[in-house]
Amino acid sequence: MASKPISLLLASHPGPTAVVTVVAVGLGIGLGYPPGRLVVLALAILLGQLSIGWSNDWLDAARDREVDRADKPAARGDVPLALVRASAFVALALALIVTAFLGIGALIAHAVAIAGGWAYNLGLKSTAASFVPFAVSFGLLPAIATLGQEHPAWPAPWVFAAGALLGVAAHVTNVLPDLADDARTGIRGLPHRLGTRASGLLAFGCLAVATVLITFGPGLPVRPLLVVGLVIGLAAVVAGVVLLLRRSPTRLLMQLIMTCALVDVAMLALAGQSIAAG
Description:
Blueprint: H1 4-10, H2 14-30, H3 35-59, H4 61-66, H5 73-76, H6 81-100, H7 104-122, H8 131-147, H9 157-175, H10 179-184, H11 190-194, H12 196-216, H13 224-246, H14 252-271
Helix pairs in contact: 2-3, 2-14, 3-6, 3-7, 6-7, 7-8, 8-9, 9-12, 9-14, 12-13, 12-14, 13-14
Protein name: 1,4-dihydroxy-2-naphthoate prenyltransferase
GO molecular function: transferase activity, transferring alkyl or aryl (other than methyl) groups
Subcellular location: Membrane
């Protein structure tokens, strides 16, 4: 059994939390954030993601225990549920306080993004609209970065669209390996209603469109590095589709979406100020 601090960390969904934080840092670097402001952005996003992750394990503990989820410390009893719940609320409060240093626009955008994650955990995951919180929260992530600049600006429309598409893809891909367990506990989100194959194809379709948008959305001459990113991103899509058609979905699908997301954020960083509306 891991120590209580380690178990609490594992209950925060550290993988997705780290990926989203890295995405935010990449956006900040691309926008030319000074080091101090970049640290504030990273800390704000990290705290927001910790809050969402801990609230998920707290609210899902009974369901996770019912299906013997070995990867959920709260369900296993490795960390007190009360501690996970308290950590979620503390991280939420700290996330909003830290984001306030980036300005009111960034604060509002981040508050809505976090609210989307909590809404999913509180029940939207069991509805046909389960994709909406992911689309909203991922779509707003670039807005937190652009509005958090010393001279705030809204992201360009194509950036919102690309972020939302990546969010839908992340949602579907993350849910696919858990369809059977979710069915046993009454969870019926959009992927459960569509079925495995259709959901997988939806995820990778969204991913492909997002990658193309990031490559050509700025309307500028395409740089060679963006072409490289496009090739890598579409290769990840092809690999995901092949994997989906040849075998049952696995966590590898989530790893592919994370890989492509990191490629996409690198491309967004290369886009720099062009991600902000003119």
